[in-house]
Amino acid sequence: MSVQPYPVLPTRIDRRSDTFRDNREANLAALETVEKALAQSRAGGGEKYVERHLAEGKLLPRQRIEMLVDRDAHFLEIAPLAGHKIKGHTAGASVVGGVGVVSGVECMISASESTVNAGAINEMGVIKSGRLAEVAESNGLPSINLIESAGADLPNQSRIFVKGGRGFRDLTRRSRDRAPTVCLVFGSSTAGGAYIPGMSDYVVMVKNQAKVYLGGPPLVKMAIGEETTHEDLGGAEMHSRVSGVSDYLAEDELDCIRIGREIMSHLEWTKGATPKPRVVEPPAHDPDELLGIASADIKFPFDAREVISRVVDGSRFSEFKPLYGSSLVCGWAHIHGFPVGILANNGILFTDSSNKGAQFIHLCNQSNVPLLFLQNITGFMVGTKVEQEGIIKAGAKLINAVSNSTVPAITIMMGASYGAGNYGMCGRAYEPRFLFSWPNHRIAVMGGKQLAGVLDIIKRESAAKKGVEVNEEQLEFGKKMIEAQIDGESEALFATARVWDDGIIDPRDTRDVVGICLSTSYTLPVEGTTSWGVFRH
């Protein structure tokens, strides 16, 4: 193994400057707000229901995950703030999920938050579970489900029932694709909660705790008049000795976790690809400085190379076309030993930078190198000059390349993410394997002030065509209202609550988060493509 020959990026950051200090203070304050929201997510259903759960001798969902995952191994949580401040939902959406290592195997782990409505799945829970399934499927991961669920949240069934069926479909399709699911059942799992073990490849049930049935004793009595007990109807021993729904009978929760780890061990799981071994060097520049580099106010730009130099191994970066298309920085590096092709915004996208990005994506596909998009983009350039240059063609070429690229892509939203710039830089709709945001992130069609201004112009033009006078006071009030609305809907917490990203991360953790994502992506073979849609010339 040898050190990469790539040059080390220099830094021009002044830690003593007012800009650096102001950014750092603002980003730390934003992280504190995020941490308070995460504390709510970790609190589950609240003190009353947590104490009731513990009084029954049960472990909390996060404790189960902690004991399941290998000692000192990672667990990268996905969408921990799904449902945050959305009416009728708790932060976390009643599901805990993410990528962790069990018996040396990277896998998707999900757990019912059984202290919230007995683990019943709600609308945001369906969305979050769907995202967890996407991560598992796109990366070819085996899965472990820690179940204790009352099934669907019945009062809200109209928002859940139809799309909720996808979860069962995904389970069986992953089994078809040889990515097995291990289901550990810790408590009562009813109706939809019963189908999850029923469709899993391996099932472990906890003695005297697990109760799995399509309908409990009250429903059975009402439907067919039969008197029965929980154990006879769906107890762990019955399913282990009589029905065969359970493959293993665990003595208690710790035994259940032990058996789950044992199952993962005997899968003899191997990854589909491994990168060429490299010496892993820490960045030459301090990642802590990212808090002072990232602009708390996205109207102020910052140099993407200063970010790259604090994320990649040894701060080493081989830049592609450094003298051309300067508003898009492209080049090769390694992160925790994994090769990566980086596309990072250094301003608005022009014709030349769009063409450069498309070519770079082609090259990374040619050599089977994963992509990392560092988004800080207000969109594509507009105006007569760039329209005549063919900005539409160039933008379409970049989006074509992003859409059809087959190497794993990871996106970090480190600033603005506006308009078609979100699309050209591999936003959520373009299915990156993972997508995380920094706390200063803003996402929308355009900024609130710009959007309000556009609507103002449209209303004035409409009034002029009709020959009516504009009510300036009313128009100004409307502008302020729409600006406030868009600005509120653009915030990172608003976006992550709706699973528009996989979570808000501390900028200082970017290197480790991307490293885990790359490691996970290598579960499947990393194969590029030479097949693209039609490019307009």
Structure description:
This protein is an alpha/beta fold and about 525 residues long. Helix content is about 40%, strand content about 15%. It is built from 21 helices and 16 strands. Strands 1-2-3-4-5-7-9 form a seven-stranded mixed β-sheet, sandwiched between helices. Helix 4 links the parallel strand 3 and strand 4. Helix 4 runs parallel beside helix 6, helix 14 packs parallel to helix 16 and helix 18 packs antiparallel against helix 19. The protein is globular and about 80 Å long. The two termini are about 45 Å apart. The mean pLDDT is about 90.
The fraction of residues assigned to DSSP E strands is 15-25%
Largest sheet: 7 strands, mixed
Number of helices: 21
Gross morphology: globular
Unreliable spans:
none
How many beta-strand segments? 16
Average predicted local confidence, pLDDT: 90
Determine the N-to-C terminus distance: 44 Å
Indicate the multimeric state: single chain
Which strands sit side by side, in order, in the main sheet? 1-2-3-4-5-7-9
> Approximately how much helix is present in the residues?
40-55%
